Amino acid sequence: MRIFDPHIHMTSRTTDDYERMAAAGVRAVVEPAFWLGQPRTGPASFTDYFDSLIGWEPFRAGQFGVRHHATIALNPKEANDPRCRPVLELLPDYLEKDGVVAVGEIGYDSMTPEEDEVFAAQLALAVAHELPALVHTPHRDKARGVERSLAVVRESGIEPGRVVLDHLNEVTVPLARDSGCWLGFSIYPDTKMSPPRMVEILREHGTERMLVNSAADWGRSDPLLTRATGEAMLAAGFSDDDVDRVLWRNPVEFYGQSKRLDLDPADLAAPSATFAGNSILRGGS
Amino acid sequence: MTADHLRVALGGVPDPDWLDEALRQVAADPATITRFFPAAGRRCGREALPDAPGWTADEAARALLLTALPTDHAGYADALYRRGDAAEKRAVLKALPLLPIGAAGVPLLHDAIRTNDTRLVAAALGPYARHLDAAAWRQAVLKCVFTGVPLAVVADLDSRADGELAVMLGGLADERHAAGRDMPADATDLLDRLTAGSGRPTAREA
Q: What is this structure's pTM?
């Protein structure tokens, strides 16, 4: 089973996770920029975070044979802090980087006027930089959040086929399905979505435009739930090809619209074959 | 390596017109380099160049963009490094010896050597590392050994390696042996060369 996790916050995960993910078949990930639990107080903190997403984290992933990409944005939660607003001015540089395959996570947290503004501004950046957009849907008041997100997407002029609405559930699927956007599902140990529920949704709505992710981060989460979902699909009678479509070809197709996906494993190892196979290097410590 | 050599080695890139046009624009309007620099990997590829050993197409294209600047090479190298992803940083490091900047790029070497990204550490130890002072250079070589970067990447290794580096390598060898771990073969060889005739037991005998 080859797996592309289209949404996982590897910054918050250990090398043990990379090892287990690689063993489970995860060959590629996208790490969206989001908040870190602890609110940040200014743009410099974001610069270091974004630099890590296009520097250190891909290197760390590469040690385990995992290809790492990122999406970059000012997240909706911190969009509400005026001290973080200048982050918007940093984004155009980052949106030109090779490893950046979408603008995200953007969208709503509490649906404030500040979030409206920052969401719309960043959809415009996605259009200008010819990138897809990853839209986080709010955890609270989700149905209306999805509706309102779709309205902002429509107004922006971005093609719906270049947008994924993430963290969907049974209630929000029909609305998202009709919009022409891609549908993202975050499989969590016991909250957002579970493997058996995901299988039911795939049964009812098919595998087209469906993205399954672990959204694993610093909270209670599990980077192997993509694999568990693939196994649940097989157990429920889906074919290997169905699983490959959902867990590999769909994310490749969606993020491939950036024309920046690089899934060639050739340069994953280090500068010379003599140290390929070294376990993660503990340099300097 | 020279810029001309890199230009020839890049003859077969997927989009040579893009590179030509980018070089022309950078020569005429230096600020445009900030737009071309991140795109070079997508336009020129990332393959190793058979005619420029140790260089990939994106590194060579980015180095050429830097050499095409009419002025302020040091300022642009610094800005592009600071704002670059890992591949852009690596390209700046490799371009430094081709630029008319004297020792102005040394702070970038220090930054790269501080990281734990072995590709950056390796790129910092090319010919431009002649501007590093002895203490920083020895620490960087030792870090290569420590993190498994092959010593073949270190320019001027034999001419610069000295007794102090031998002491440092010997200390690492002692620690490794005490822990039942091996030293990389290239480091053992270097230590043997440095300690030959000194009366210190060679790394192999210890």
A: 0.90
In a domain, A267, yes or no: no
Please report the DSSP string for A6-61 in residue order.
SS--GGGS-HHHHHHHHHHTEEEEEEE----SSPP-SHHHHHHHHHHHHTHHHHHH
* CB-closest option in A58, A97, A271 to B122: A271
CB contact under 8 A, B149 and A270: yes
- Using a CB–CB cutoff of 8 Å, tell me whether A262 touches chain B: yes
Report the C-alpha gap between B175 and A22 in whole angstroms: 32
Same domain for B91 and B170, yes or no, is: no
Reference A169, options A205, A134, A197; nearest CA is A197
Note down the domain range covering B72.
1-101
Tens-place pLDDT, residues B71-113: 999 999 999 999 999 999 999 999 999 999 999 999 999 999 9
Using CB atoms, which residue from A93, A275, A283 is nearest to B83?
A93
- Structural tokens at position B25: 């624009």
Is residue A56 within 8 angstroms of chain B, CB to CB? yes
Q: Which of B39, B85, B148 is facing A275, going by the closest CB pair? A: B148
**Coil, strand or helix at B6:** helix
